[in-house]
Amino acid sequence: MPDPGNPKERGAALLTVLLLVAVMAVVASTALERVALATRMTGNGGAVDQARAFADAGTEMARLRINDLVESNPAKITLAGGWMGTPQTIPVPGGLATAQVTDGGNCFNLNSVVSGRSEALLKVRPVGVSQFQALLEALGVDARQAATAASSLADWVDSDTVPQPGGAEDETYAGMDRPYRAANRMMIDPSELRAVAGITPAIYDLVKPWICALPVTDLSPININTLLPAQAPLFAMLLPGELSVAQARQLLAQRPEDGYGSVPGFWKLPSLVGLSPAAEVAEQVKLKTGFFGVTVSVNVGGTQVVERALIDARESPAQLVRRSWGAGA
Question: Per the database record, which ranges form the T2SS protein K second SAM-like domain (predicted)?
Answer without folding.
Answer: 222-284
